[in-house]
Amino acid sequence: MAAEQAKVDPMHQFSIEPLFGTDHWSIAGYNIAFTNSALWMAITTVVLLVFVQGGLKRQLVPGRWQMAVESMTGFIDNLLAANIGPAGKKYVPYIFSLFMFILFANVLGLLPIGLIGLHPFTFTSHFSVTGVLAVMTFAIVLVVGFWRHGFHFFSLFVPHGTPLWLMWLIPVIELISFLVRPFSLALRLFVAMMAGHVLLKVLSGFVIAGTNSGLLWGTVVGIPSFALMVAISALEILVAAIQAYVFALLTSLYLNDAENLH
Fold this sequence. Notes:
By secondary structure, the protein is mainly α. It has helices spanning about 35-55, 65-85, 90-110, 125-150, 170-210, 215-260, and strands at about 25, 30. The termini are far apart.
């Protein structure tokens, strides 16, 4: 007998679906539908713009909103100063935007608005999105590296003090490590966000199944699963912030290599 289809599909939440009747929109055979992923990217962008706008008041005695924006800007400024030095000042707008965009995307995807019939979409749980962010960062690193150092940028792949008898091996290893950076940068964020959402959906399936199975299973399975969901949801908020920070931190380290050729 075929197994009964699960009532809660943990992977359905990652499905990209067209919205507003755009499923047949295409240009040159390529679908350009406005999807749920694009919608939440737009929402995240608007939230970020509103957040930044609140910090542009420049009041002598800043309010909480302005203080929050200035605190986040100062945090990114300190991050770049510690990892790049004085040259990192010019990257503050990019790293700040990158960090806040990922942070808001992660947090908005955790909002419990499913209770009112809406379904948040965490687009950072898709490798295509995190991949674009990583490739964009990698491209900036390459442009900065060649702009500042020209072909001397290739010396990055020959660490100082490399023995002559290893000159045939170390540059190859360093080059491979350098080329893998965008993949690992994108994969880390994608896996962390996807794994947490899958776990939450599986636990919600336990809660529903336990509740529908009667008082005994609802008590034995449903209640502990719900308590674990609450705890993991709190942990996911922390993970959302940590992953945004790690992405910004690694980006600053890669920019440091391009600036200073360490």
